[in-house]
Write a structure and sequence with these properties.
heterodimer, A: 317 residues, mainly alpha, MetI-like fold, 11 helices, B: 358 residues, 16 helices
């Protein structure tokens, strides 16, 4: 029997995979852009990123500066209602009103985008890298190591995430960094489970056996062959996870355990304002809308990615 | 079937032990000196030494863990520093509030979410479908505490004076103290004589007012529950609606549905008897997973609406650095979570033979 082609090196084999992968990426992106809600999600996220990057330019006032005592501001300065020029507003314009310390809410929300996006991305990166690593090792190793690691993940998952995050922050003390750590730790099991499931599915396939036969080391197989095939659900989960992280950070700040005053984090703004919701609802409304729109954007994009990456639809183009 | 049950129970045990370990470790890690916390800032060193000795805090950690496990097995979760009462007492007093809240929230979520999902799937891609899914997406993206505050504002200030006005806080109108059912039924002579279980049951205000046929009381308790229950239940509602819809869409594409239609069955029969039943299976699992959302929603919602339930107790314990309380509440919640998921697994196995026979 003759070989169809001459034997190729491991590098050449990997190069073939890469070119096929690029075609896949192009297909996926094409399907993604056809999905209306995914596009809306991407628009929202882009606007958010722009807001965060250009915050100093967009904000009308200093987010930490109180308007009390500033000449030109007419009473009531704390908790003043929103003042929109279109509706015939004469005084200095505070698009979203003032909070209970007399600070401009609009500027605080604009700067809050920075904090929230920071928390979202960093916690997902932390949880993602740790979780993926754990999942790869557990799935590839199998046996008792796999069992032990996954049992521990099960225990972490047994706690409602907010409760566990609260307990972790209580131990380490309130603050944005500790909130980040807590949210990261709480999210690790999800990524570990996803990765492990993918590893188990891919581990026994022929190309892995072929790579091993060609003399690839375990590390090279794990990170070069298996890991790229676990990416699909991970990308979806990471996108959705950013939204979840933003909400959890806001929840922790709302309970006084996350960002501390005067940091303009959206949950923190909500926490300050909550006793005044009946008299000055604008202080509560705007930060909440900001959180909702942000999380909605990531959810829409995540759902769109999930549909675009769905292997059952592949080839239907 | 019994083998399936046995396997499930067996796999839950290591998780429970793990929960005990994690809760113990977390409890010990909370900073703050327990001696100063209980005996006061000016306690002498001798008094503190005696305190440590008495509570076994001088023993090595593994021994402390054994003591902890033994105590938990005997139902002793320690005493709360802040309240000066046993944690178990506090939990028994406050659990009915949270259980009632989560129960009503779950009923709300399922009663509206499932039909919404079914209608969305049946009228796939219509205006109803798109609208419902947009609503569900927004519902999942909203922070629970914000929704609670906005609803509270809307219904107590915005709609003030109308029939739709709802009270923003408390479980009952201020000053109302409903008669516990065991008094009305003359089960005991004095309130103090009633056993713990009866007192526990009487704290479920809805149940209590039904048992005493107190319509005004029932309505009062229900009115106070509506806003918090809607707040807590909205996210699970959105999740259930989406899950029902995608599950039913998959089922409607199956061959057996086509067969049922080809047989000439009435459309309603096809949908309800054949399609929906099978579509609801994954939804059952989701309900179990949603318990986590219900609990964290309860923690946040109770602080907003002034319900003294487990969530608020946990929050108070955290702010007061009361680690026995935090430990106890976390432990109970985690165990409840495991038990509920176990029950959901068993129910799922009961409903779907494919699960229990693999």
């Amino acid at each position: 029997m003759e070989l169809a082609e001459a034997p190729i090196s491991l590098k050449q084999a990997e190069a073939k995979t890469t070119s096929g992968r690029n075609q896949l990426i192009r297909d996926t992106l094409r399907r993604l852009f056809r999905n209306r809600s995914a596009v809306i999600g991407m628009v929202i996220i882009s606007l958010l990123l722009l807001t965060a990057v250009f915050a100093p330019l967009l904000a009308t006032h200093d987010p930490l500066l109180s308007m009390i005592g500033v000449p030109g501001e007419t009473p009531p300065v704390p908790r003043k209602a929103p003042c929109i020029p279109l509706f015939g507003c004469e005084e200095p314009t505070h698009l979203m009103g003032l909070d209970l310390n007399g600070r401009d809410v609009f500027s605080r929300i604009v700067f809050g985008a920075r904090v929230s996006l920071f928390v979202g991305f960093v916690s997902v990166i932390f949880a993602g890298t740790t979780g993926v690593f754990i999942g790869l090792v557990a799935g590839y190793a199998g046996g008792w190591a796999d069992n032990l690691i996954m049992r521990f993940m099960d225990v972490l998952l047994a706690f409602p995430s907010l409760l566990l995050a609260i307990t972790i922050v209580t131990i380490r003390g309130p603050g944005l960094q500790n909130a980040l750590l807590a949210i990261g730790i709480v999210s690790i099991p999800v990524y570990a489970r996803l990765t492990r499931a993918s590893v188990l599915a891919v581990k026994e396939l022929e190309f892995v056996t072929a790579a091993r036969a060609m003399g690839a080391s375990h590390t090279r197989i794990l990170f070069g062959q298996i890991f790229p095939n676990t990416l699909t659900p991970l990308i979806v989960q990471a996108t959705l996870g950013i939204g979840t992280a933003v909400i959890e950070a806001a929840a922790l700040s709302f309970l006084g355990l996350g960002a501390q005053p005067p940091t303009p984090e959206w949950g923190q703004i909500l926490a300050e304002s909550r006793n005044y919701v009946f008299t000055s609802p604008h202080m509560v409304f705007f930060p909440g809308i900001a959180i909702t729109i942000t999380v909605l954007g990531f959810n829409l994009l995540g759902d769109g990615l999930r549909d675009a990456l769905d292997p059952r639809l592949r080839g239907s183009n | 079937m019994s083998r399936f049950i046995f396997n499930r129970l067996l796999s839950a045990i290591p998780v429970l032990i793990g929960i005990l370990v994690v809760t113990f470790v977390l409890g010990r890690l909370i900073p703050g000196d327990p001696c100063r916390g209980i005996l006061g800032e000016r306690a002498t060193q001798a008094a503190c030494d005696a305190f440590f000795e008495r509570n076994g805090l001088n023993e090595p950690i593994p021994v402390q863990f054994m003591i902890y496990m033994r105590n938990v097995a005997q139902g002793d979760l320690g005493d709360s520093f802040r309240y000066g009462r046993s944690v178990v007492d506090l939990l028994a007093e406050r659990m009915p509030t949270t259980i009632e809240l989560t129960f009503v929230a779950l009923i709300f979520a399922v009663a509206i979410g499932v039909p919404m999902g079914i209608i969305s799937a049946y009228r796939h891609n219509s205006a109803v479908d798109v609208g419902a899914m947009i609503g569900a997406n927004i519902g999942v993206s909203m922070p629970v505490f914000w929704l609670g505050l906005m609803l509270a504002y809307l219904f107590s200030v915005g709609l003030k004076g109308t029939i739709f006005a709802l009270p923003p806080s408390g479980r009952l109108t201020a000053g109302a103290s409903p008669e516990p059912f065991f008094m009305v039924w003359k089960l005991v002579q004095e309130p103090a004589e009633a056993g713990n279980f009866l007192i526990f049951l009487s704290r479920f205000y809805l149940l209590n007012s039904v048992l005493t046929l107190n319509l005004a009381g029932f309505w009062d308790a229900l009115r106070h529950l509506i806003l918090p229950a809607v707040t807590v239940g909205t996210i699970p509602l959105a999740i259930i609606a989406r899950m029902t819809r995608s599950s039913l869409l998959e089922v409607l594409n199956q061959d057996y549905v086509r067969t049922a239609r080809a047989k000439g069955l009435r459309e309603r029969n096809v949908i309800v008897r054949h399609a929906v039943r099978n579509a609801l299976l994954p939804v059952v699992t989701i309900i179990g997973l949603n318990f986590g959302f219900l609990v964290s929603g309860a923690v946040l919602t109770e602080t907003i609406f002034g319900f003294t339930g487990i969530g608020k107790t946990l929050y108070d314990g955290i702010t007061a650095r009361d680690y026995t309380l935090v430990q106890g509440v976390t432990l109970v919640t985690a165990i409840a979570f495991v038990i509920i998921n176990l029950l959901v697994d068993l129910i799922y196995g009961f409903l779907d033979p494919r699960i229990r026979l693999t």
